[in-house]
């Protein structure tokens, strides 16, 4: 097995709009799309579409959405033995995408809040077969910490994508991860430093490196990616494309990076490929529906 994703799944309710309504205003939006999402599930699906063997550890809702999410994992070749049905309803994410392809996302965790440390412990034997563990922050923090500790115990590298940003995230756990991958705004929230320019982003990143973070990977949208370690910093330029919908682009990046990394590619090359994969994904609508298959990506 290549990758264990321990994280969230959601139902994305995406409204495409011209502008946000004012207080008290009712506004008609031109289009709507519903699909499978959630940062954990998105990352698993991106890696799965590229051909990785992925285990998903998650809690779906006790409703029709939950069943649909399980079917979706199966369709994308993802192992579902560690997908449990919670007692709550499915996690949902109302998303608003503006004409510049930028999004605003709300999340309601639902059953994701029931993914507890014990659940992760129950699947230790499956998780221990993975070459990489991927985590995000749409599940309880104690579950994330449990998974980080399990990775250390099993000698499996952990990639933590701190999304959505949570200022309560304990840096001691971040330091145990092999890869820490925030986007620029999450970096700003976590460091409480400005991130308006590349220089500011580098300074904020350097502050985390000084505190002991290992491989810091900052995704910067169409500006590219910054990879910083104690020894060096590398900027991989973004690819300029006509974006339609950036929802889930960061997740497609993480899934693709993990795929190539676990297939033996070096970090820099894996980042370059992930950059391209995300650039391709933003040219399609929806979240997972915009993620290319291996064939589509290779053709790109
Ligand atoms: O990163 C995009 C994702 O954030 C969406 O799929 C939504 O479900 C939220 O989790």
What features would you describe in this structure?
This protein is an alpha/beta fold. It has one domain (3-19, 31-299): UDP-N-acetylmuramoyl-L-alanine:D-glutamate ligase, CATH 3.40.1190. It has 11 helices and 13 strands. The chain has helices at 39-49, 64-75, 117-122, 124-127, 141-154, 171-174, 184-191, 198-210, 249-262, 267-281, 294-299; strands spanning 3-6, 10-16, 31-37, 54-60, 83-85, 92-97, 103-105, 132-135, 158-160, 179-180, 215-219, 225-228, 233-236. Strands 5-4-1-8-9-10-11-12-13 form a 9-stranded mixed sheet, with helices on both faces. It has a 4-stranded mixed sheet with strand order 3-2-6-7. Helix 7 packs across helix 8 and helix 9 runs antiparallel to helix 10 (267-281). The radius of gyration is 18 Å and the shape is globular. Bound molecules: alpha-D-ribofuranose. The site of alpha-D-ribofuranose has 15 residues, from strand 2, helix 1 and helix 9. Alpha-D-ribofuranose (RIB) binds next to strand 2, helix 1 and helix 9.
CATH architecture classification name: 3-Layer(aba) Sandwich
Which value, in Å, is the CA radius of gyration? 18 Å
Q: What do we call the CATH topology?
A: UDP-N-acetylmuramoyl-L-alanine:D-glutamate ligase
Instruction: Indicate the structural class.
Output: alpha/beta
The tally of domains stands at 1
Distance between the termini: 27 Å
Helix tally equals 11
Low-confidence stretches: none
Q: What oligomeric state is this?
A: single chain
Mean pLDDT: 97
Ions, cofactors and other ligands present here are: alpha-D-ribofuranose
Biggest sheet features: 9 strands, mixed
Indicate the proportion of strand residues. Answer: 15-25%
Name of the level-1 CATH class: Alpha Beta
Going across the major beta sheet, what is the strand order? 5-4-1-8-9-10-11-12-13
Order of helices and strands: EEEHEHEEEHHEHEHEHHEEEHHH
Percent helix, as a range, is 25-40%
- Supply the CATH superfamily name: Ribokinase
Count the beta strands: 13
Shape: globular
